[in-house]
Each structure stands twice: as C-alpha cells, then as structure tokens.
Amino acid sequence: MKKLCSLIICLAATISSFAAAPSFDNESLSYRVMYKWGLINKQAGHATLTIRDKGDHFYARLVAASEPWADKFYCVRDTLNGTILKKGFRPGFYEKIAHEGSEDKHDTVKFSYSGNTVTGHCTRRVVKKGELKKNEKRTLTDTGTTVDMLSSYYYMRSLPFESWKPGHKETINIFSGKQKETLTFDYRGIEVVQIGDKRYQCFHLTFVFTGDGGKKTSDNMDAWITTDAARIPVQLEGKLPVGKVKCELIQ
C-alpha cells in the first residue's frame, strides 16, 4: 500500500546508457485512487504528479492525499520532491514528507556517483503520536542503474518495451531513506485498458520489490503505460489485506 502511494500518490538497459534525457514537456498528471472490494468501488484518494525542466536537471513533485471518508481508517498526506540530472538521467536528490496513519516521516537521499558506483547519503526521521521514534543516518552503495521512488516513475517510461517479449525482466536498484531494494520490471505484453469511456492501448508491467537474499519486501504492483510516444502511466494496481487499490489517470 505504501509503495503504491509513493509511486502514484505516489518507474535501455541502464540509466547511464541514455544518449540524452527524455523530454516530459513540463507535464502535470492527475490521478484518482480507487478502493475496490467486492461491489465496493469508491474513490479513496487523489494525487498530482508534476515535472519541470530546470536547465541541467528536472524537478519532480508528487502530492497525494486520502479522501475525508478514508481519513477515518488510514489518513495519507504525502509529498515527494526530487531532482533528476539530465546528464545520464540520474537522480540527484529525493525527499519524502509523509503523514501515514499515526506516523510522520521525513526521508532524504542525496546521490553521488563515481564511475559505475552509486552512493546514497540518507536520513530518516519518524515521529509517531508526537514521540520521536527514529532519527537515523545511513549510507547505501551499489553499482549499476539506481533510482528512488519518484525518479523510478519516469525511468520506467523510457524502457525499450518495443524490443521486449512477454516474460522479459529488467532489474535495477532503488534507494529510500530506509533501505536499499531491488526493483524488477516483469513485462507482461500489450493490453487494452478502459478508464471511464476511454480505452488505452498499454504496455503492462509487474513490479517486484526484493531485499537481501531475494526476499520480497512488499506485494507486487502492476502498471499500464500507453504505447504512444507520450508513454503515460494510466493505471497502477496493488493488493491490500482486504480488497485492492487502483490509481487511475483522470482524463
């Protein structure tokens, strides 16, 4: 649930292989978050994702909130901020400011690079019911393609789906203020998705998050991205202990 919020409410073989940074034309995308369980199909939240061209880098922001009725069960107020360096299309800075349930969290990651080695200088602060629970600093290091939860959203849109066959898998690193994980994109093929009265031809991906030893760190998520040049993610879906949640593009 939390990863799904972060992705929408919050994704070439490696980032360093890009000849030039993709252009997102200072776009702004809005989503509704739908809760589905049996006959229940109700809007539980909303999110807006924006990206702006700042010369040598992009600045991205995700703002998300649960609806008043859902606040009574699990209140979400998330803001993700980040920069993506155009050179190599690599994350420069990531920040998550979140109120989720009874917890307030503030995570940051500052990225640095040396050859193929990526280092994340991370901080994490967690306050629960007014009491400081965590105030941590850590350094994460790995080699190869590395993203955060915000830049991953844009990275996935640059993947060479046209050359992939169903079953193809692509694995990268993902850093947060809390930990280092492995994110695997499992390509499922082309499908048609209907949202309201509009139909979209989409690439279908499943996201698999794992930690040390290959142990899954959360349930899988699915995304559908339009096959046209815009590569807009129109739908994300994830399971909950009861029911599931869908993030749908607002037309």
Number of strands: 15
Q: Strand share of the residues?
A: over 45%
Overall mean pLDDT: 88
Gyration radius from CA atoms, angstroms: 17 Å
Distance between the terminal alpha carbons, to the nearest Å?
Answer: 24 Å
Task: Characterize the overall form.
Answer: globular
Strand arrangement across the biggest beta sheet? 8-7-6-5-4-3-2-1-15-14-13-12-11-10-9
What share of residues is helical? under 10%
H/E element order: HEEEHEEEEEEHEEEEEE
Low-confidence stretches are: 1-21
Helix/strand class? mainly beta
The largest sheet, given as strand count, sense and whether it forms a barrel, is: 15 strands, mixed
Report on the structure:
The structure is a single chain. By secondary structure, the chain is mainly beta. 6% of the residues lie in helices and 59% in strands. It has helices at 2-7, 68-71, 151-155; strands at 28-37, 40-53, 57-66, 76-85, 90-100, 103-114, 117-128, 131-143, 146-147, 169-175, 180-195, 198-210, 221-226, 233-239, 244-249. It has a 15-stranded mixed β-sheet with strand order 8-7-6-5-4-3-2-1-15-14-13-12-11-10-9. The longest helix has 6 residues, at 2-7.
